[in-house]
Design goal:
With 245 residues, the protein is α/β, with parallel strands linked by helices. The chain has one domain: Vaccinia Virus protein VP39 (Rossmann fold, 3-Layer(aba) Sandwich). The chain has 8 helices and 7 strands; from the N terminus they run αααββαββαβααββα. It has a 7-stranded mixed beta sheet, with helices on both faces. Helix 2 runs parallel beside helix 4. The chain is globular and about 45 Å long. Bound molecules: S-adenosylmethionine (SAM). S-adenosylmethionine (SAM) binds next to helix 2 and strand 2.
Amino acid sequence: MRARITANHIGEEIDRAATEATKARYNRNARFYDAREALVERSFKRWRAKLWCHARGNILEVGIGTGKNMPYYPQGAHVTGIDLADQMLAVARKRARELGVSVDLREGDVQALQFPDDAFDTAVATFVFCSVPDPIRGLRELNRVVKPDGRILLLEHVRIDRPIIGRMMDWLNPLVVRLMGANINRRTVENVERAGLEIESIEHLGPMQMVKLIVARPKTAPTTWLQPVASREGNSTPPAASVDQ
Ligand SMILES: C[S@@+](CC[C@H](N)C(=O)[O-])C[C@H]1O[C@@H](n2cnc3c(N)ncnc32)[C@H](O)[C@@H]1O
């Protein structure tokens, strides 16, 4: 097995309470989700189409939600879609039937994927890592399940890097999370780097470049991370990223 940075190497526990709260919020919103997003979806559609041009082979879509990416799946693609929220998946199942799209839909948590290493050629997430309680852990899981020559494709809104607006986003964030489940102040580009993925390209989209289309590759961990060397304090785990996510 190749040695790569995975969530298990970090040895942190999943925050079960935060994960259950996220699931409950999306289950609560599932019936209204598509209607609520209809306006922004006008821009998102173009960006989804761009992202899916990069997808190849055996594809994993995480946080598939109500299946809004289904119209952009490549012809004949084998796609597995997972989501934390069963009610979002129920809408996705209906959409797949209506569109005649073949997709293997499963309940699952990107922070602890039930797939072996190197199982996929491409992993896709659109507007997901704003909601995942531990995004770095989730991104490391994508690193693990994607083949070394595969790609990780992300379309994510991020914190706007301007003093006043950025601070306003920080201030409003707790309310937005409570209502919608999404953090509006995530620094996802930095999180991708901290998770150890190698960024191949970033496209800056939307007003104030708030949305990023990120194409990343899995990266092999530096071998020093993988040796359980006891430190002077007797700590045998490699350094976990302690960051403002
Ligand atoms: C804002 S919605 C985006 C849905 C879809 N990707 C789209 O582009 O419309 C975020 C989705 O991520 C899912 N999600 C949040 N945390 C997750 C996790 N830890 N594992 C899997 N899915 C998760 C939510 O249930 C929700 O369906």
